[in-house]
Amino acid sequence: MDASEIRKKFLDFQVKKGHKVIQPAPLVLEGDPTTLFTGSGMQPLLPYLLGKEHPEGKRLCDAQPSMRLQDIEDVGDPRHTTVFEMLGNWSLGDYFKREQIENFFEFLTQVVGLDPEKIYVTCFIGNEKYGIPKDTEAAKIWQEVFKKAGIEAKIAEIGSAAEGDKRGIKPGERIFFYDDHENWWSRGGGCESTPIGDPCGPDSEVFYDFGEDKQDIEKYGLAHPASDGARFMEIGNQVFMQYRRLPDGTFSELEKKNVDFGGGLERIAAAAIGSFDVFKISLMRPIIEKLEEISGKSYENNTDEMRVIADHIRGAYLLAAQGLVPSNKTQGYAMRRLVRRAILRALDLGISTNFLSEIVPIVASNYEDLPDSILTHRETALDVLQKEENAFRKTLNRGLKELGKISKNSKTLSGQDLFKLQDTYGFPLELSVEECYRQGIELTPEYKKEFDEALKEQRERSQTASKGMFKGGLEDHGEQTVKYHTATHLLLAALQKIISPDIVQRGSNTTSERTRFDFNCDHKLTPEEISAVESQVNEWISEDLPVVFDEYEKAYARDTLKAHGQFWDKYPDILKVYTIGIFDNPISREVCGGPHVEHTGVIGHFKIVKEESSAAGIRRIKAVLEN
C-alpha cells in the first residue's frame, strides 16, 4: 500500500467510524501571526478544541499538509522532513480513550497491514506535584487490545528518555510509561509550562519497531521507544485532552473531554514497506530516482544530498501551489531558503544546470489528490520556482567564485568577509556559513557579531549620506509617499522592459496621493501597452522583492553595476544606489537618495489612471496605489 492509498484508506476508515472529512487548511494560515506555517492538523482546529462548536459536528478527520522548519537542519537523516502530511481525527466531547485506541490499532493492523508484533506504545507516568495520576486507563486498554491480537503486553515504567537510554527494554515489554516531557500535551510543553486556561492532557504515542540492527547503542544508548536511535519510529500520537490549567496553576478535569490524533503519513507509509527510511516511500522515491538519473549518481552513496533536495522541493512546491512567492520576508524567505538549499545540494551532486523543471512535475503528480481549495496555484507553481532557480544560480555562481577568492587569501573568514559577499554579490549569510562548513573553511568565532556590526555601520553611513541628498521629486518622506517612490522605480523598469530599453526618466513628482512620471517615447502608449506595464509592476509588487541600497564610487555604479542615472556629470564621487530584486539580476537599479520601502509587497495595487503628452517626444503617466 503506497502513501496515496494510505491517505485515502485512512479517510474512508474514519468516515465508517462516523467522522466527517473536513478540508485541510493552507500551509500559511491567514490571521495567525503566531506561526509561519501550519505545523500540525490540530493547529487550525484549536478554537474547537477550546470549546467552540464545529459546523461539521463532533467527529472530524482530515489529511493536513504541514511544515516545520525547526527540523531543517536534521533533514538528511532517514526520517526527518520539513514538510509532511498529518493524518488526523478528532473527537470533540464525544468518544474518548477506548474507542480511539481500538480504532487506531485496527487501522494500522487490519487496513494498512502492519505486524502487531512490531507495534509499541507509550503512556503518561503522572505528575505528583500537580496531582495528575498515571494514565493507567490508557495502559489497560492497550493491554486488552494487544491481548486480542494474541500478544501479552508487559508494562515498563521508564520515566525520562535519558533513563530509557540507560535501561533499554526487557523481553515482553510493549507499553512504556514516560514523564511529561514525552507524554504530556499542551501548547506550552510539559505540565509546568501549560498556559493558564488551556486544555491539556496525557498522550499515548505509537511506535513501529524496525529491528534491533537499526539501533546505534554507542551513539544513542540502549533502544527504547523514546530514544533518538533508528530502531523505533513514532507513527502516531493520541492526545487525550481531559484537563484544564486553572489560574492558581493547578489542574481540573474537563467536563467534555476531547481526542486529538495525528499520524505522520510518510512514517506510516515507511512502516508499511518495512523501511526506516521515509525517502523510499512512494511520495519520495520517484524524486530520488530522477535525481539519480540526472546526476548519474546513486542514492546509497549520496543520501544526504538527495534527501535534502527531495524534501525541500516538496515544501517549495506546496508553498508555490498555494500562491506564495519567494521573497526576503517571513514565509517568502523560508520558501526561498528551501529552493536555495536544494540547489546547493544539487551542485554537490554535480548538477550545475537548472533541474527543477524535471523534479517539480513529479512532486506535483504526487499531490494530485490534495484539494484545489488549498493548492489554488498549481498551474503557475513551476514558473514561480523556475524564476527563483534562474535568479539564484546567477547569484550563486558569482558568490561561490568570490568566496573562493576570499578563502584563498585567508584561511579564516570574518563576519566582514561574509557581509561583503551578501552586500556586494547577494550571497546570503546563512548560505555562506553553510558553504564554508561544507568546504572546510574556518570562520572567526565572532563572525555573526562582526557581520551585524558591518551591517549596522553600512546603515549608519547610508543614513548620513542621504540627508539633503537627491530629494528626487518627493513632496515629503511620509509612508505613503515612500511607497509611491518605490512604485515609480518599478514603473521605469516596466517601461524599459515592455516598451523600450532606451526609455529614461525625464522628470517626476511624487506625493502621498499619486506619482507623476515623465519619460521619452515617440508614440502614445496603446491600451494594451498600458495594461502590460501596469500588470508588470503589480507582478513585481506581489513577488515582495527586497529593496536595498549602498554607497558606491560613481564609476563603479555606472560602469560595473549599470545603475540608471540622469546626471552622471553632476553626481558626487560617492553616491547612493537602490536595487530592487536579486542583486545579480535586479528588476531595478537606480542612483537615488531615497527613501524607499524595504520590500515591494507593502506597496499596494498599482493603477495607471492617465497617459498623456507632456512635451514633444515626452509622455507622462499618472498612477495611484489602491489598497
Report what the structure shows.
With 627 residues, the protein is of the alpha+beta class. It folds into three domains: 3-280, BirA Bifunctional Protein, domain 2 (2-Layer Sandwich); 323-462, no CATH class; 479-626, Threonyl-tRNA Synthetase, Chain A, domain 2. Helices cover 39% and strands 21% of the residues. It has 18 helices and 19 strands. It has helices at 3-16, 46-49, 97-112, 136-148, 161-167, 217-220, 265-272, 285-295, 303-321, 330-348, 356-366, 378-409, 415-425, 429-439, 447-466, 479-498, 527-542, 554-560, and strands at residues 20-21, 59-67, 83-92, 119-124, 154-159, 173-178, 184-185, 199-209, 232-245, 251-264, 412-413, 442-443, 505-510, 515-520, 547-553, 574-580, 588-591, 605-615, 618-626. Strands 1, 2, 3, 4, 5, 6, 7, 8, 9 and 10 form a ten-stranded mixed β-sheet that branches. A four-stranded antiparallel β-sheet has the order 13-14-19-18, covered by helices on one side. The chain has a three-stranded antiparallel β-sheet with strand order 15-16-17. Helix 5 links the parallel strand 5 (154-159) and strand 6. The protein is elongated, with a radius of gyration of 29 Å. Residues 465-473 have low confidence and may be disordered.
In brief:
This protein has helices spanning 3-16, 46-49, 97-112, 136-148, 161-167, 217-220, 265-272, 285-295, 303-321, 330-348, 356-366, 378-409, 415-425, 429-439, 447-466, 479-498, 527-542, 554-560; strands at 20-21, 59-67, 83-92, 119-124, 154-159, 173-178, 184-185, 199-209, 232-245, 251-264, 412-413, 442-443, 505-510, 515-520, 547-553, 574-580, 588-591, 605-615, 618-626.
